[in-house]
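In response to a reviewer's request, we include the raw inputs and outputs for one of the modeled complexes. The three entities were modeled together in a single run.
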Amino acid sequence: MWSHLRKSGIKLPKITAKEIERKIDPILRQMEKAGIKLDVKAIQLLSKKLEAKSQKLEASIYKSAGEKFNIASPLQLAEVLFEKLRLPSEELKRTKSGVSTAASELKKVVDKHEIIKPILEYRELSKLLSTYLKPLPAMADKNSRLHTHFGQDTSTGRLTSFEPNLQNIPIKGELGPEIRRSFVAEKGCKLISADYSQIELRVVSCLSGDPAMMEAFSTGQDVHARTAAELFDVEITEVSHDQRRVAKTVNFGVLYGMSPYGLSQALSISQDEAAKYIGRYFTVHSGIKDYCNRMIELARSEGYVETLFGFRRELPNINSPHRQIAEAEERMAINTPVQGTAAEILKLSMIRLADQLKVLNENSKIKSQNYNSKLKNSGILNQVQDDDPKNLKSCYLKPRLILTVHDELIVEVPEEQAKKIAQVMKETMEGAVKLCVPIEVSVGVGENWADTKNNVA
DNA sequence: ACAATGGTCC
DNA sequence: ACTCGGACCATTGTA
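The model returned the following structure tokens for the whole complex.
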């Protein structure tokens, strides 16, 4: 499907999607076994703090409402807000059971009543408490490590994480970093996080061959700023925060097969205005537009689309007479090759990195003698990671992959090796595939997951 | 046990 | 009326 790209500066490892799946499997099992350490004390402290705050909010909500009710029930909440308190609901979305109480809707009436703000805040805290703060400590093993399970059966080739899902740990807001601070490195070790910068946009620029977008990446521009410059017809240096935000949303929208409605919702603007942006975007980026049309046509005639490495997704309903069903699959036809190829690049980099780490371990000058003294000094003989206590020596202070979050890899390494391995990760990931544009990876080292984001290695 | 609703991540 | 890709999980409320 992509053989025509071979002449466009792209160079691919001789490997198929199936082989990638086969090779990634033992790596995933090793990562599951290794797990990631949770600072149980810290997370329980945070939990207590937020619980107290949550109760105060609860009381304040009951007071504003003039009655007690179940805030977690959309049904009861809607009744209180839109019947008892008579808040205007005309502008808000409906669900099957009545007016939607989704945060995106409640925000529209936040100025109409004092009760809305505490509700939104209460919701946020409830979410964090019930999904992360309370359950995670209970799932940690005797060494405080969390062992997720990685799944490989998705429609685009992405990996999943479950029981617990460690791919949706909060990062946004004030509390996100607080929570991520509880994901820590073992004593004497560091976490290194390396993530691909705008990998999906780079992939689509390459799959489409769109000259403007390729140029943006090839010359190291801020791609969202550039898009903003194009959309608003200003110099790239004169782009405002807001213009860049809009452009960023449009860029993401492209990957999802955006419609004027979807974009209007995402940006809280009118559909007309959204349609203007889309029109302008596709005028400047006709290569992207052609890509979208090509994928839809391909799916219509062949019944499937493929990623760069040949992962196939069937789209049996793309010729459905039901517009809504057909259009949904059209968006999949656009998105799957992009998301799927990005996933393959990440998996390829995992395979390469696992090899690199193995070599590094075998050549390591830190031999068993040093291990022994290190172990004694650090006093952690009884809290290391491997299931088999007899293997303690060989696995402590051994760099290993422990987590992946779609465009990010996290390893845990002895601190004295952190700098070196951070560099290895960056090079390995950036060189995993040669696209027609450069691939950039940012790396950070820290004692915990949050700190890896502040520290450029 | 299951659908609906809502929310977290990339 | 509906509408932007891919996941997992908690809670409510009904069957």
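As requested, we also summarize the result in words. Chain A has three domains: 9-39+144-198+343-453, 43-137, 201-340. Residues 95 and 198 of chain A are 34 Å apart (CA to CA).
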